Amino acid sequence: MSASEMPNPTPIHRMKEDPMNTPLPATDSLRPMTEIQIRQTRDYIDSLASVSEPYWDMVAIGDELSRELHITPELVILYADAVEDFNPWYEGWRMNTWHIPGESPFGGAVVPPLLVSHFVLSVQFDHTRPFAVGSIHTYHDSEILAPIPVGATVRITTRAIDKFIKRERRYVRHQVRVEDVASGTLYFRETRDILSL
């Protein structure tokens, strides 16, 4: 059966009409949503269409953004559980004891090496400005310079260092640094590319 021959799905949930008697769109049967979720989703999509621009146009070479992140034992265990990286070196907590120093060859408990890499995207994009959907993280080269102790507060800084076209696609290259807020120790460096559609 071709796509044109397939029947239209019947929505399992339809929003109530508004006071002006204007019918609102229905959600599909695969993802039923509440009225608030539907309105928020539609508002978000409408805002992207009206004020967004491609990532390529938003970023200039030299643009820099940074954010501080306190790496708690709870954050570490949630990350380690999510990526199934179970290592006693990361355990800076114990049930009913909570924060403990932990043990590793580096002294106390340490952060899984690539945990901070997962937070780079939250720094890399300026969330005060909407951007077009379609930016894709395509490459990264990570360099781990020192173990990050559990409980540290780090500053993640991204800087746009290049814009280039490869195979008729537009890319923005960023340089990333992760350093300790208190001591200035450089823990992690990374180069990553974002494809902008």
Based on the coordinates given, report the CATH architecture of the domain at 55-84 and 110-196.
Roll
CATH topology of the domain at 55-84 and 110-196: Thiol Ester Dehydrase, Chain A
> What is the H level of CATH, i.e. the homologous superfamily of the domain at 55-84 and 110-196?
Hotdog Thioesterase
Helix content: 10-25%
Order of adjacent strands in the largest pleated sheet: 1-5-6-7-4
β-strand percent reads: 25-35%
The number of helical elements comes to 4
Radius of gyration: 22 Å
Strand tally is 7
Topology as a string of helices (H) and strands (E): HHEHEEHEEEE
Outline the low-pLDDT stretches.
Answer: 8-17
Oligomer: single chain
C-alpha geometry: globular
Largest sheet: 5 strands, antiparallel
Distance between the termini: 32 Å
The level-1 CATH class of the domain at 55-84 and 110-196? Alpha Beta
Mean pLDDT: 81
Describe the 3D structure.
With 197 residues, this protein is an alpha+beta fold. It has a domain at 55-84 and 110-196: Roll (Thiol Ester Dehydrase, Chain A). The protein is 21% helix and 29% strand. It is built from four helices and seven strands, in the order H-H-E-H-E-E-H-E-E-E-E. It has helices at residues 35-51, 55-58, 73-82, 115-124, and strands spanning 64-70, 93-94, 98-99, 135-144, 153-166, 169-180, 186-196. A five-stranded antiparallel sheet has the order 1-5-6-7-4, covered by helices on one side. The chain has a two-stranded antiparallel ribbon with strand order 2-3. The longest helix has 17 residues, at 35-51. The two termini are 32 Å apart.
